[in-house]
Amino acid sequence: MKLLNFFRIPRNLAALLLCAACLTVNAAGMIYGGVRHANGAVDGAGWAYILQQGCAGCVTIFLVYAAEWLLRIRLPAPVELSLSLFAFAGNTVAGVYGVYGLFPLWDKILHTFAGALFAAVGYAVAFTFFREKFTHTQAVLLSALIALLAALAEGYVWEMFEFVVDTVNPASNAQRWKDGLLEALPDGTYLTDSRRGSALIDTMLDMIVNFTGALLFSAVAVLLFWKKPAASERFCVRRLAPHKKRADRSADDRDERDDRS
User: What is the pLDDT of residues 195-207, one digit of tens each?
Assistant: First the structure.
């Protein structure tokens, strides 16, 4: 009965349908990659990458819901669904279906979207706290600033992650450092096609588009929410009831049985 009531809520049903569609497309891509590997169109390393991205996609699609369950919160529905779509676009679309190789700008599109998306998360969390402590105008402006800083922090942490991955695994090319290599010299250095190095260029462009996406969201949030308090209230983080202990659940079950009898 509780499960039925859960899916009677439109946003829960939308989340279920979205995740089911993402998982179906993800599984289809992995199967197609396996067929291509069996036919010799994809080598072992390529097949391993498809498997890695496909498995990561299966997990990351649900990360936002796991975090909400653990923290007992509910993000605004557009943010919640967008986080799942972002995970799908970053792992399944880019990795499993190889869009990174077919459409190089996809990486920059994702970083731009990430800036706006994590700015939205930062705004929702900040406004939930500031609305009770400041006037509406002050809360909106402060939340927009926090949104911008939250997105910049996300971009900064991600670039550090890519640097660590490339450092630990010399075969990795997360920061595109291999893209600009022309020749390996006998003394162990490299000849590159740019004095700044392709890794630095990739990192800085990622941070610039991340900042652009965050700035755009912050500006739109101020324009949208400043004069519309009702819209701001709908874009808050909703607190859920804490998890019940086993004894409390048993007592509730007994009360429910008594009510039925």
Answer: 888 889 999 999 9
